[in-house]
Amino acid sequence: MLGEGSLIHTQNQNIYILVMPIISITMAFIRKKKVGKNVYLVKVESYRKEGKVKQRVIEYLGKEIDGKPVKKISADKIEVQSVKQSLDVLAIDKIAEKLNIKRTLNNSNF
Fold it and tell me: How far is Cα 67 from Cα 62, in angstroms, rounded to an integer?
């Protein structure tokens, strides 16, 4: 079995065979990808396939809005901190105002 720096002896000469493992170093970088009117930010890495350099998407990072990155948020990471009921009361108040029954509701003793 030949390893790194193996030596093969022949009759009159020494032949050295250097076995070097192929090390593939890939570097990831962020790329802007335009799809329609939207610009998305993706982490990509370059690789070679059949002698050509190609890119593969590793991770979707977010969207670019007005030239600023907007990070994506997973739904499982969203936590509810508090719940306030105000919209339903506001809606009823506006409906009562439109129907001119607001004064009546304010004067009644419930």
Answer: 12
Residue 87, phi then psi, degrees to nearest 5: -65, -40
Residues in the chain: 110
Tokens at 21, concatenated? 């493992």
**Token reading at 79:** 């936590």
How confident is the model over 20-42, as pLDDT tens digits? 666 666 678 889 988 898 888 88
Other CB atoms within 10 Å distance of the CB of residue 81 = 4
Q: Half-sphere exposure of 99 toward its Cβ, with a 13 Å CA cutoff? A: 10
Q: Do residues 102 and 90 make contact, with C-beta atoms less than 8 angstroms apart?
A: no
DSSP-assigned beta bridge partners for residue 77: none
Residue 87's SS3 state is: helix
* CA dist list (Å): 54 to 23, 37, 44: 18, 24, 10
In sequence order, what are the beta bridge partners of 15? 8
The first and second tokens of residue 3, run together, are 């390893």
